[in-house]
Amino acid sequence: MNWDYLQALIAVARGGTLSAAAKTLGVKHSTVSRHLAGLEKDIRTQLVIRSPGGLKLTDAGLRLLEAAETMELQAQTAQDEISGRDVSISGTVRVGAPDAFGAFFLAPRLIRLLDQQPGLTVQLVATPRSFNVTKREADIAIALTMPERGRLVTRKMAVYGLGVYGSAAYLARHPSIEKIEDLKRHRFINYIDDLIFTRELDYMDEVAAGVHAAFQSSNLIAQMQAARAGLGLCILPYFLAGTCADLKIVLPDTVQLVRSWWIIVQEEQKNLSRVRITADFITHEVARETQTLMQPSPLNLVG
């Protein structure tokens, strides 16, 4: 098969449109269209369904895509091995991560990686969802649980702590909190129940069973901002609340939640230089911040 044709199929599958695929490949969209047509002619099978909303692969297209991506990966791995993979890396790595970890922990630290590897491009998708690396939603995924299946390389990066926080202004206006039962007299901020993407975020009952959150959001950063505005109490990771001195932790010795971060890559991609080096960098940065992750910041302590 013509490799240019297969690259067009890969680019269309990832971009969803002819224009996106053309931009990726650095060609005109008419060239991509011609290559797809040539591929379909060569194998005498329809591979792509064209619609106003974009392009979608047929079942045959999906099967061929899997084979094409395997070829692509083998070529990239061979190039890494031949050229001396640790001398310099280039290309794009997409990292999928929870919103707070991506925006507040990882993003500010990426300067060190990109200064070391100027040929690397990092795409950070920081949003409250799970990422499927097998379906190429990300090259590297940061997850709160270990995946149950798939040809994946998974390692536990770290554990992090969470506590209950409120703004200094909110706490000054409302009844004092001396014990767990006192929490039930306060307004809470939490996730939207039916939009929680992993059971690890369903921790309200661990703190105060039966409490209803008056404000709910699928985004942890939105929850934090609402807490800062004085809307109510919110369960936040220590590392995130530590960026806001106006948030104060309550019952720090009583309410101590712990969760884990896992880093996930495809088995076939683990030796790609750009993936391996980026994953190692993220793991190293997390390991450097053990105290920040597991202890409330002094800025958040009351008194």
From TrEMBL:
InterPro entries noted in UniProt: LysR-type_TF_proteobact-type (IPR058163), LysR_HTH_N (IPR000847), LysR_subst-bd (IPR005119), WH-like_DNA-bd_sf (IPR036388), WH_DNA-bd_sf (IPR036390)
Positions of the HTH lysR-type domain: 1-58
Pfam families: HTH_1, LysR_substrate
Keywords, in A-Z order: DNA-binding, Transcription, Transcription regulation
Family: Belongs to the LysR transcriptional regulatory family.
Name of the protein this chain belongs to: LysR family transcriptional regulator
Biological source species: Xanthobacter oligotrophicus
Phylogenetic classification of the source organism: Bacteria, Pseudomonadati, Pseudomonadota, Alphaproteobacteria, Hyphomicrobiales
